[in-house]
Design brief:
By secondary structure, the protein is an alpha/beta fold. The protein folds into two domains: 6-213, P-loop containing nucleotide triphosphate hydrolases (Rossmann fold, 3-Layer(aba) Sandwich), CATH 3.40.50; 223-294, 2-Layer Sandwich (Alpha-Beta Plaits), CATH 3.30.70. 35% of the residues lie in helices and 26% in strands. The strands form three sheets. Strands 5-6-7-3-8-9 form a six-stranded mixed β-sheet, with helices on both faces. The protein has a four-stranded antiparallel β-sheet with strand order 11-12-10-13, with helices on one face. Strands 2-1-4 form a three-stranded antiparallel β-sheet, with helices on one face. β11 (246-249) and β12 form a beta hairpin. α3 (93-104) packs across α4 and α4 crosses α5. Bound molecules: adenosine-5'-diphosphate and magnesium ion. The site of adenosine-5'-diphosphate has 11 residues, from β2 and α1.
Length: 296
């Protein structure tokens, strides 16, 4: 599979006085799963809608393989998408797919194939109105797969999935990317997609705050260390010497932006008797929150 590169370039979308997205730029590369992450209202859906030609940008552009969605000759065979679901509750899963199929040039056999790919062959004749969130997400993915696209754009695909569903979705999307496909998915919870994504784009307040590999995001986690000592006097002196350090109690020093080894060395040099030393530091979720809060 030869997935297209997805590029969002200086995209701005205003709705009257509301700026939903402001000057957003990022790419999603083929062969990788890109997580488009940010709190509710950050501008994720608006960006994905612009990418799919469903909203007109106020400024900037979004392209798939170098072309705007509207300029693609057979868009359904290039990119499969599932945005916030609007399924007709009275239709069965198979009927839903057969309604969409003509738009992407898929036949009835492909509809059944797509249902099988998402593990829903057994539910083909059941009405969507009775589906759980997890089944809706699977049906959405089946819809996106209909045209055999090399790119998938999925809005909150992990939303409402149980842990088994998340594991299944992760394996599916990772395998799709491993075959060369491009995957761009949004989520308001980093934890939900942390094990699924290779790259992250963090958006908040309509602005892109960070783009990197997930590995590089891990590296931005700030260390911190805690040291316990019975020598309150020297501990207080040490605290005064370390920027940002605080005493949780007279015997417990907490120091940001320093790991345990570095704090141990400082304590040793200061002649502080050490009874306990532990490194901690930000979790990935805390890094994510820090970046999205900087928006406010
Ligand atoms: N059609 C619209 N008209 C007016 N405001 C909108 C419209 N669509 C989205 N917005 C606003 O744009 C902002 C971003 O929304 P959205 O893109 O849905 O964020 P997300 O998907 O990250 O939750 C929100 O403040 C939302 O209320
Ligand atoms: Mg949204």
């Amino acid at each position: 599979m030869d997935g297209p590169r997805i590029a969002v370039e200086s995209l701005t979308k205003r709705y009257g006085a509301v700026t939903a997205v402001e000057d957003a730029s990022f790419v999603a590369e083929p062969g990788r799963v890109t997580g488009f992450l940010g709190p509710n209202g950050a501008g994720k859906t608006t960006t994905l809608r612009a990418l799919l030609g469903l909203v007109t940008p106020t400024a900037g552009a979004a392209t798939i393989g170098g072309a705007a969605y509207a300029a693609l000759e057979h868009p359904g065979t290039v990119v499969g998408a599932h945005l916030e679901a609007g399924f007709h509750p009275g239709r069965t899963a198979r009927e839903h797919l057969r309604t969409v199929a003509p738009l992407v040039g898929a036949d009835d056999a492909r509809c059944d194939e797509a249902l099988a790919m998402v593990g829903m062959d057994g539910a083909a004749g059941r009405r969507v109105g009775g589906f759980s969130m997890g089944m809706r997400q699977r049906l959405g993915l089946a819809t996106a797969l209909l045209g055999e696209p090399a790119a998938l754009v999925l809005d909150e695909p992990a939303n409402g999935l149980d842990p088994a569903g998340i594991t299944w979705m992760r394996a599916f999307l990772r395998a799709f990317a491993a075959r060369g496909g491009t995957v761009l998915l949004s989520s308001h919870l980093l934890g939900e997609v942390e094990q699924t994504v290779d790259d992250v784009v963090i958006i908040a307040g309509g602005r892109v705050r960070h783009t990197s590999s997930l590995a590089d995001l891990h590296r931005l986690a700030r260390p911190s260390a805690t040291l316990r000592s019975p020598d309150a006097a020297r501990l207080a002196l040490l605290a005064a010497d370390l920027p940002g350090a605080t005493l949780a109690d007279p015997a417990t020093l907490v120091v940001p932006d320093l790991d345990a080894a570095a704090l141990g060395a400082r304590a040793f040099a200061a002649g502080v008797e050490v009874h306990g030393l532990a490194g901690s530091g930000e979790t990935l979720e805390q890094v994510f929150l820090r970046m999205t809060e900087a928006a406010a």
